[in-house]
Structure formats: structure tokens, C-alpha cells
Amino acid sequence: MTDRPRRVGLSKSKITxxxxxxxxxxxxxxxxxxxxxxxxxxxxxATGHEVGALACALLPDGVMIEAEPDLAAAVxxxxxxxxxxxxxxxxxxxxxxxxxxxxxxxLEPDGASGWHMAxxxxxxxAKDYHVGDLATQLWVxxxxxxxxxxxxxxxxxxxxxxxxxxxxDGLFADTDLMAAAEPIIAGxxxxxxxxxxxxxxxxPGTAPGAHCDAPFPCEFAGYCHAALPAGPEWxxxxxxxxxxxxxxxxxxxxxxxxxPAALTNATHARVHRATVSGEVYHDVEGARAAMAGWAFPxxxxxFETIGFAVPRWIGARPYQQVPFQFSAHVETxxxxxxxxxxxxxxxxxxxxxxxxxxVEMVPQTGAVIGYNASFEKGRILELAxxxxxxxxxxxxxxxxxxDLLPVTRANWYHRDQRGSWSIKAVLPTVAADMDYAALEVKxxxxxxxxxAEAIAADCTAERRAAxxxxxxxxxxxxxxxxxxxxxxxxxxx
Length: 493
Fold this sequence. Notes:
Layout: E1 10-11, H1 12-20, H2 22-30, H3 41-57, E2 63-64, H4 71-82, E3 90-97, E4 100-109, E5 115-120, H5 128-143, E6 148-156, E7 172-176, H6 178-186, H7 188-200, H8 221-226, H9 245-249, H10 266-277, E8 281-282, H11 284-291, E9 298-306, E10 322-331, E11 337-343, H12 351-361, E12 368-370, H13 374-386, H14 391-399, E13 401-403, H15 404-411, E14 412-413, H16 423-430, H17 444-455, H18 461-489
Parallel strand pairs: 1-4, 2-3, 5-6, 9-12, 12-13
Antiparallel strand pairs: 3-4, 4-5, 6-7, 8-14, 9-10, 10-11
Helix pairs in contact: 1-2, 1-5, 5-6, 11-15, 12-13, 13-14, 16-18, 17-18
């Protein structure tokens, strides 16, 4: 075993940063104030903490190594356990080698052969970048004299279904990556030396590139991109579905420079033409024909859902998108519109109440319209499977679902969409007075955050009421937007 750590200069996360981009590591240590705020970080941290705590709870005889009063004490405590016959799981085992300190999520005794190492992740499978994380842990553990017989990523098993409250046996699965980590381990000493040299030197001159987003979006991307010369107003990257990649590879970054005759994809040609000319592409007759068969009364439907990593309700799977809210605008052939809505913020399983509200509020005839409607159809069919007594009505409803998105994509393009047909990109180009900027809840991610806040035990009645109003305003805007968009497409605005 090595001596008590004289310095803690590097960690698993810092080495991961270095391997993504040396400049990211340097900035994180020396210019941390330049990092952009990550709005989703708090939610991800909460999920990771919940998953990690549950992984430990499933091994009730384990011992937790606390980081307090300091990490040197944690290293000493880990040493004492490992070298004094401890034969139970260890959580957050703290080890160090060559100035690299790691905290291993789970060490489990593996008979006489050593220890099984498991890094707990909230993902549903092991990912490529996890191999590097595990390699760092293994490199430190081996050099600290800990015999590791196997090493795995302990991830969530997406096939798990919660059948009894509080019974999470089977939630996790191990994917062994020890063999995959060996080539990385072999070069870890050189990687650590290079990372340390980077930190000791001046700010690296690494230019922005694809590494800014892989495997993680870099919090310093804004700082690095700000130093670049201003790009064209209309870059080739507005061509959808990666259509600009071939031009970037040829050194062409300005869409105006692209030869339209070279665009063989009809959508790319349409986007190019509308962007260069400034003229909106609008096929009124095509849109009318596409929607002509949508029977009245038309129900414009949108769900908001929550997908917990750890299922909270009986019958739910990890990350299952459970609907806690819907908005339904029902439109008659004469143009009259009535609004119906459902929202559950009491923290109980919202599915039955949602299913019953759908059956009650959505007419039994007529088209049910969504935007990217496979999502709405999928949620309806899941509710049908969960509640057999409502299955006939819900299955019939799902059979009437149609999709406004492909109609929009085929018949409308304004260059201000900048290659996107999301409803939030399209709506301002059709109805400039309708947007989401003034809403407290502006997208699906913030809707999930609002729901999680509202059902938390410490949420006040006043705050819950405000979140209720914000969620209703947002979801209602989505279905109202679909009606306005459809009318705009058909030339009725």
C-alpha cells in the first residue's frame, strides 16, 4: 500500500476531462469562473445520488467510507479495512497512487481471489467512455496493492419492473469491462503525466471541434468559441440531419457558397433555396391535402411526462415516460374550440387518473393530433396495457392518432427555423405573436423539473400552486400552437 497522499492533484473526473480536451481540464482548474451554467446539472446530480444510494442499500452489510474530515483520513480508513481482514462490501473506497485519488463506488469481496469492483451508473447500459473511468480506478487500485479480480459498470436494467413497493432487487446489472480496460490501463501513467504537465503549463491552444460535445458537452465551449472569428450568418450546419457535414469536410462553411445543383436531397435543396432567397416555402395545397382526411371533431393532444431512473410506482420501469399532464383542445368542423386538461401534482401514480381523464375528455370519434405523435400514441397504448378495463377506449383512441410534424416538414420552411421543425422553431415563423419566452415553463425538460419540484415534500402550497399554473400554461400553449400552425399551413390565418 502507498503512503498517505501528499497531494491530490488529479481524480477520475479530471482525467476524463483531459482525455476529452486538455484545455477543458486546464480551464476547470485555473479558470473555473468561465464555465457556463448547466441547467440540468442539479437534476442529474439528484438522479445519480438516488441511484448510488440505492445500489448501496441493496448491499446492507456494506461499510461507507466518509470523505470527512478529509480525504487523507478516507484513504487511511480504506487501508485499514483492506489490510485487516475486512470481508464485507466497501462503499466509496478511497485510494491514491501518484497523486491520483479515486473513490470506488463498490468493492465487494470475491472469495479468496480479491475484490469485485463496480462503478455505479444511472444509464441503462455501459457506454464507451465508462471504460476509461473504470481503467483509472483499476490503475490506482492495482498500484495501491488492492487485488481486483473483476471490474464492471453497474448500470440500471431497463427490463426491471417494480412489482412490490421498496423491492428493487434486480434493478441493477453488471457489465464486466475489465478486459476492455486493460489497453487503457497500460497507458495510464503516461496519461497522468501528460495531464499534470498540462496543468503546470499555460492555457492550451486547443481549437474547438467535435470534442466539444463528446462524450459530454463542455462547460467552456462558449468561452472557446467566442475566441474564434465570426462565422457566416447562415452556416452549412443549418442543413438538417447532418447535411452540412459533407460541406464542412470540403472546407465550405457558408451555405450561400454551396452550389444548389449539388444538393441531391430534396429537403436540403428546399432549406438552401429558402435560406438564400429569404422566401418562405409554403405548399398550401399539399398541406390541405395531407390534413383533409383528419375527421372532426379534431383533438389536439400533448402529454407531459416524467421518467424516473428508479421507478416510484408499481408496474413502472426505469425511465418509463409516465404522463402526469395532458392538454387537449377539441375543435369542431365549424371552428369552435374547447379546452380540456389534466394535471396531477400530488406525487401519487398519475397513470389511472390520466387514463380516465383521457377517456372522459377526448371525443370517441375524430382525429387525435399530436406533433411527433408517435410519442402521444405510445403513451396512450401504455395506459391501455396498464388498465385493461379502459383498454378498448384507449386503443381505439390510439388508432385515430395522426401527426402534424411530417405535414409541417413537407409543406413549410422559413429560414428562421434554421434547419429545425420543432414546434418551438416553427411557431414564431407562422405566428410571431405566439412564443414561449414569457412562460415560466418553456420546454419538456423544465416541465419535468417543475413536476419534480412540485411533488417534493418540502414544496410549499404556494409554490405548488405557482408550478401548477406554469405547467398548465405551457402544455396548453403546445396544443394551441398546433391549431394555429395547422391553420397557417392550410392558408386559413
